[in-house]
Amino acid sequence: QVQLVESGGGLVQPGGSLRLSCAASGLTFRNYLMSWYRQAPGKEREWVASDSGSTHYADSVKGRFTITRDNVKNTVYLQMNNLNSEDTAVYYCRARWVTNDFWGQGTQVTVSS
Q: How far is CA 107 from CA 13, 18, 30, 53, 78, in A?
């Protein structure tokens, strides 16, 4: 049974930082493309960043967010710096490989003073 469990969300002031984690189990983690997505209230879910060995970022987060992965701990991280109100959303991790596609349950990030 595959599980992706996100953690690390919370309330942070503008300009602050958070680090999200996504712990994976039940899959061969190193094979998977790991990504972060987010969904703000009233908006569609959008891609944020991916790590397949090389990293890629949405323009809106480039230079502020960093995705990393630990293939020993089966965990992917999202370091988020210089947060602003537009980063408020539920953040989800996603694991994809061939036809396998799994999502976590999400973690809430709220940026507010």
A: 17, 12, 23, 24, 12
Beta carbons within 8 Å of 89's beta carbon, 6+ residues apart: 38, 39, 40, 41, 43, 108, 109
> pLDDT tens digits for 13-33?
999 999 999 999 999 999 999
Residue 74: partners with Cβ closer than 8 Å, 6 or more residues away: 23, 24, 25, 29
Determine the Cα–Cα distance for residues 20 and 9; give it in Å rounded to an integer. Answer: 6
Mention every residue, 6+ apart, whose C-beta is less than 8 A from residue 34: 22, 24, 50, 51, 52, 67, 69, 76, 93, 94, 95
Task: Return the ∠ at Cα 81 (arms to 86 and 110), rounded to 5°.
Answer: 40
Q: What is the DSSP letter of 72?
A: T
Over residues 59-86, the mean pLDDT reads 98
pLDDT computed for residue 98 by the predictor = 95
